[in-house]
Structure formats: C-alpha cells, structure tokens
C-alpha cells in the first residue's frame, strides 16, 4: 500500500490542533483522513468509540481531542476537565489497541510537569513534584494519557507515542473572553479596547510569570514528524520511564512582555494595567526541547509573525460572526 493511502483518524479535527494536523497531512499528500464531529461520535461514549473503530479500522490515530481552557476555565470546571479528558483518551487508546492500530500519537500538555520543576523542564521531570493547583485535574488526566500509552506499549507491544506541547496558539484558537488561554484572550482584549478607544487594558496577575508559545502549524508539523519516525528512531530518544517528547520553541518571555507584543501587533495605543488580585499560575513553564531537536524538528514561525497571523484569524472569525 502507498503510505499516502493509510487510513488516519484525527480525533478532534475541528479543534485548533486537530485541524492543523489535518491541514498538514493533506499538504503532505495523505488522502484517507478519517474525521468525526462531536455530534457524529461522542468520544466519551465507550460503546460508540468501540463501534467506530470496528467499522473504520484506522491504521494510525492522532489523539488531538481534549477539553481545554485557561486558568479561569480550569478553576471553574475541574470535574468536566478531568472526566472528559480521562474518558476520551481511555476509550480511544484502548480501542486503538483492540483493533490493531499500527501507530498512535497522544497530545498532552506542558502542565503535566511540577509547578516548581527546574527550568527548562526536561521529560524526566514528570511526577517529581506537586502540580500547579489551578489546572491539576486537567494535568492529571494528561499524565494518565501518557501512562496509558506507556502501559499498552509495555504490555501489548503497541507503538503509541506521546508529545507534550508548550502553549499553542494560531488559526482556530478559542477567543472566548473568559475561558480562553492567555494569548488569544489578550488578542481579543486588546482588539476590543482598540475598537472602543478604551484608555487601558487589564491583564490578570502581576505580569511576571514567563511562558513559551508555539504556533499551531509548527505543532502540527511536529506531530506528523514524530509519527513518521521509525519505531527505532523514536525509541532511541525515549525510554520505558520517559516515553513522551516535549515540543516547543525553547524560548520564553514574561506575560508583561507578551502583553506589550500583542498590543503592538494589534496597534493598541492605551495603557496596560495588571490586576494583582488574580492568580498568576505557574511562575515559569519553559520546555527542554533538546530531544525533539535531536529528532530533526525545529519550529519555523517566530512569535511576532505568529501573533500577526493569529490576529488576522481572529479578525476574520469576528467578521464571520458579525
């Protein structure tokens, strides 16, 4: 069989990461990409997922489906975050094993690492300390996904892989005023302030925490790159206890620096103020990406360029909504 005829299931294809993975696969020439909307297949429904895998028999699976959000959403809906993510990954990974899927890629999150992990955070920092309380339920679900892949590999000889992205942004992001992540929330806030000629924009926290950001198209390329690796090449950069690989830029900046950059891209002329009564979250989250570099992948889109592209995406979505 031609490799471009492989049956590839992208779970979560309407999300920011899943849609980018579909675009990346299509650009590379893959012709047999399987998708389902949430209305067509509820991934938390074990019987439904089992029937889907039995019928479609995908050969490769990308697990990009997840319930995600920023500090506010994680604090407000902890039960939904842990339940939904646990159920989705357990159902998909188990049925992938049961139906003989050749390769699976699970997408995690950098919040799996301890709140005060040494920086930059290497893969072996996992489970070495306490998690950030504001997103602990979500982080535990993602850690469980890594361990599911590890366990099925160990017990059944599967080829299930895991990548841990840093903070992602780009086309298809969630710009909700309360439930979005920090960068899309800033894009919306600064844009609305510009349109209203508001004198200032308020940012949560002190502005001192440092964060790393990766453009979603770069993440999609990383995912396909990792899946295309031979089993030997992937295994050479992992081991039984550390089977996941970090994906990021290896560079970070403070929230205050990010706010200044977003305001410049949006061309907002007002003042930036900080609400120190709001939580900062983890002080710093920078990934050690040396393993991913050793596997031959590096990001292509710089932060300023990526924010400009994301802002254009936001404005186009706004026009459609209006």
UniProtKB/TrEMBL annotation:
Its EC number is 1.1.1.271. Belongs to the NAD(P)-dependent epimerase/dehydratase family. Fucose synthase subfamily. Pathway: Nucleotide-sugar biosynthesis; GDP-L-fucose biosynthesis via de novo pathway; GDP-L-fucose from GDP-alpha-D-mannose: step 2/2. InterPro entries: Epimerase_deHydtase, GDP_fucose/colitose_synth, NAD(P)-bd_dom_sf. It catalyses: GDP-beta-L-fucose + NADP(+) = GDP-4-dehydro-alpha-D-rhamnose + NADPH + H(+). Keywords: Isomerase, Multifunctional enzyme, NADP, Oxidoreductase. This is GDP-L-fucose synthase. The gene is fcl.
């Amino acid at each position: 069989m031609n490799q471009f005829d492989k049956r590839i299931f992208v779970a979560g294809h309407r999300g920011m990461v899943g849609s980018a993975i579909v675009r990346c696969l299509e650009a590379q020439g893959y012709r047999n990409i399987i998708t389902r909307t949430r209305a067509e297949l509820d991934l938390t429904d074990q019987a439904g997922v089992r029937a889907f895998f039995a019928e479609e028999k995908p050969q490769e699976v990308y697990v990009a489906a997840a319930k995600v959000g920023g500090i506010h959403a994680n604090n407000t809906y902890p039960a939904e975050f842990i339940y939904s993510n646990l159920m989705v990954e357990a159902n998909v990974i188990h049925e992938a094993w049961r139906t003989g899927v050749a390769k699976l890629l699970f997408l995690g999150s950098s919040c799996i690492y301890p709140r005060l992990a040494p920086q930059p955070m290497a893969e072996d920092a996992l489970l070495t300390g306490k998690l950030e309380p504001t997103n602990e339920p979500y982080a535990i679900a993602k850690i469980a996904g890594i361990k599911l892949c590890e366990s099925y590999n160990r017990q059944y000889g599967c080829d299930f892989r895991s990548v841990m992205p840093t903070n992602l942004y780009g086309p298809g992001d969630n710009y909700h005023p309360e439930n979005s992540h920090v960068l899309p929330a800033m894009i919306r806030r600064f844009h609305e302030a510009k349109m209203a000629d508001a004198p200032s924009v308020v940012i949560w926290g002190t502005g001192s925490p440092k964060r790393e950001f990766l453009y979603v198209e770069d993440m999609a390329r990383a995912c396909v790159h990792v899946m295309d690796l031979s089993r030997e090449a992937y295994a050479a950069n992992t081991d039984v206890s550390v089977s996941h690989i970090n994906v990021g830029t290896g560079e970070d900046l403070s929230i205050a620096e990010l706010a200044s950059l977003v305001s410049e891209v949006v061309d907002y002329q007002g003042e930036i103020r900080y609400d120190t009564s709001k939580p900062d979250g983890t002080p710093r989250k920078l990934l050690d990406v040396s393993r991913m570099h050793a596997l031959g992948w590096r990001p292509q889109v710089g932060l300023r360029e990526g924010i400009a592209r994301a802002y254009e995406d936001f404005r186009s979505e706004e026009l459609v909504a209006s």
